[in-house]
Amino acid sequence: MGGNISVAVLLMLLAGAQSQQSVTLSSRSLCALIGSTVKIPCKYTSSSSSDRPREWYQVQRSDGEPQDLSKDPQYLGRVSVSTWWNNCTLTMNNVKVSDSGVYNFRFRTWRNKWISASFGVTLTVTDLKVTRSNTYRTTLRCSSTCTLPNNPTYIWYRNGHNQNTNGLYMYGSSEDAGSYSCAVRGYEELRSPAVCKILTLNSH
Ligand SMILES: *[C@@H]1O[C@H](CO)[C@@H](O)[C@H](O)[C@H]1NC(C)=O
């Protein structure tokens, strides 16, 4: 009798521990510049020892069984996973447009059950482009295909020289002809391609 109660208690404890196991990804989407390093924050709670199998995978690229990113030639040598106890943060270096996709993390419990986050993180990798919109005056814009985090400060270069303008737009006059490129502060080395502008004054 006493033995049965112990077994019941043990099963309840195990069930409780099992249900508490989870993966938490704190952001749903991330936008990153080509060539930058991306960290996808991740935490997990596991009742299993830390040497259980664990891996990051790309959701759409995995038709059948998810493929461990660190074994995928596309990511070889560019990804690492934190080895801290309950930290599963993924660091991806030198990101490319082709890295855009949905990522998730999973670990295997001692019962050989995989546990992952219910939603993956959508990563979008963007380049920077100088685009022009003709409104009242000629306006240059440093554009990206997704919204970069932390309200970035844009840096403009004219003929390769920093213009000390940090706005999103640049208003030109006919003296401003030249070759323009832009960058985001902190990532100056990841500059956009230069665009040649012979600015013409608008008739209005
Ligand atoms: C988790 O690991 C990442 C990458 O190693 C690190 O940047 C981050 O500070 C860690 N987070 C915590 C809460 O320790």
UniProtKB/TrEMBL annotation:
Pfam family, one: V-set
Gene3D superfamilies xrefs: Immunoglobulins
Claim: Chaperone is one of the keywords in the record: no
UniProt keyword annotations, A-Z: Signal
Range of residues in the leader sequence: 1-19
Domain Ig-like: start-end pairs: 119-200
Protein name: Ig-like domain-containing protein
Native source organism of the sequence: Electrophorus electricus
